[in-house]
Amino acid sequence: MTVGHWSIAFAPLLPWSLIAGAAVLAALLIALCLWRRARGTSWRVLAFLVLLGALANPSAVKEERRMIDDVAVLAIDESSSEQVAPRPDQIAAAAPEIERRMRAIPGLEVRVVRVKPARSEADNGTELIGAVKNAVADLPPSRLAGVVLLSDGEVHDLPADTKALGIAAPLHLLLTGRENEGDRRLTVPKLPSYGLVGQKVEFTIRVDDLPQGPPSGRVRVDISRDGETLDPVFVPTGQDTNIAVELEHAGETLFELKAEAGPQELTLANNSAFITVNGVRDRLRVLLVSGEPHPGERTWRNLLKSDPGVDLVHFTILRPPEKQDGTPINELSLIAFPIRELFEVKLDEFDLVIFDRYQRRGVLPRSYLENIAHFVENGGALLDAAGSSYAGAYSLYDSPLGRIFPAAPTGEVLEQGFKPMISDIGRRHPVTAGLPGGDSNPPTWGRWFRQVAATTQQGAAVMTGIQGDPLLVLSRVGKGRVAQLLSDEIWLWSRGFEGGGPQAELLRRVAHWLMKEPELEEEDLKATIVDGHLTVTRRSLQEQPPSVSVTLPSGAQIDLPIEDKKDGRAVGQMNVEENGLYRISDGTRQAFAAMGALNSKEMSDLRALPDLLKPFTEATGGGIFRLDEQGDNVPQVRSVEPDRTAAGSGWLGLRRNGDYIVTGGTELPLLPVWLLLLLGLGTALAAWRREGR
């Protein structure tokens, strides 16, 4: 809309200081005339006024103004806390009605902002004020008519001081929810980021019944670890309680805590919490027994000693019992071989036992070999790097260890140059999949020259050698694991023969697989959520299913297709929106992934309260209006002048700023030259005539 506006403008012919001096001089002369009672004084006054007016050069200016619409913001809170009944219904009813009433005001532009739940791990809560500022970032403050927040009052980006709000217009709140709401919540004030495998990790939990009152007794809290239900704990309300749970494996362990329903509940969503703890091993304790000195012995020792996370106990049998050459007993060994202490008393203190070219020669009695078999069956790990003796009369296969070894010797030792090959199943096994140099045919690594011929009795032959015979076999036995390397020439790779090979990476993977590291599990299901994207990875040596089942935090189930990557992995992805715990299942295994921050601001207090926003609405002249159960009592909307009250009983006001843009103008002199001459001569003649009488 364009309107005309008249004003007076001055274009002085002389600087204002000289005009002011002339005015003072004229005033003195008039005062002198009055004191002397001179005739014609009034005409002299008129003459001086005409002169001063001519020097000021006034003109009438007419501006053509185009009025600019004011802008009001309607910010609708659709965060997680607004999903509590009856708030969605209140928003659904009130939002279109308040928007309609705002748009009914002439000359007012309405900008609607909807704040959705956060889809990242950053715990910033409901950033409603930031969304409003972004919506008006392109406007000068003079155009903002007001802000209407449709929210439960849980706004988490408010400044500490009302003066720092940055909104120079009335701020109003339409408050959703019910009065006098109560809720139970579970929080974890203190938790560790990591813990030692095999030891208990301690964290602090707290159960509160809001509004805070006297303790209401002990509350049952159910605990699950990677989907496994543990014994519940009973904690008092209103105070911190420490609980301890054991970590069973390395890598991430997901704990879920769930408190029973309280006397008043807005939602059960904040009755549970999920905790991710990274399990690390203190030190890997390894017992290495070398049956005889040989070139590859130092390869094992150097590899294990180079890792600061490994405690190595290494014994080499330099002299078998049957060897008799007359050497005095006191010169046979510097340190006695403590076989009883190692293989009976302290065997369970080791994580991994390695036999390197060991053969039965009476050093270890049969009962101790039986102890090692039980050690593996109860969860221990054994690695056998077999030499030629594995095919002979003194083979460990003909001992109690034979029942746990996955490869049975045929009695033949094959001696010819060959390159170790990754088998078809090995290309799917995480120990050998993607091993550097193994993807080409033939592999780029160097040759070996000796292999014990054997047949696979159990487990998986992930590498093969001469004539396709098994070379590296991995097997699960009871609760433990066994790996057999049917050659003693891996040391050729470490010496760089024919370019060497990835012996360090291969042995590292084998050792970590024996230690049950989650990243090397051949049958596994994992899930992660990053930036609102759920990624499910299923690893298997067998053919992959077409999909997995995903259970959302709300309880809904969907089938997620997964694509076989031909390397033992099948991967599926989907976008997720709900905060909480996602459960993924392939029918046999389960995986868990959590979205949202632990102890999130959004869930810390779900009650609809005006307390946070009240100081800011009062400071800006706005008001707070609580909606009824149906959201029908939307206040009237009025346009008010900037200096008037902006809120009252049943109505809220939006400021009328009257901002404009000048599109054109016309200037007319108030004292044209002919009029100045006429007035000047007329007053001068009148004064002269009056004085002459």
From TrEMBL:
UniProt keyword annotations, A-Z: Membrane, Transmembrane, Transmembrane helix
InterPro entries registered for this protein in UniProt: Class_I_gatase-like (IPR029062)
Stretches that traverse the bilayer: 13-35, 42-61, 670-688
Name recorded for this polypeptide: Membrane protein
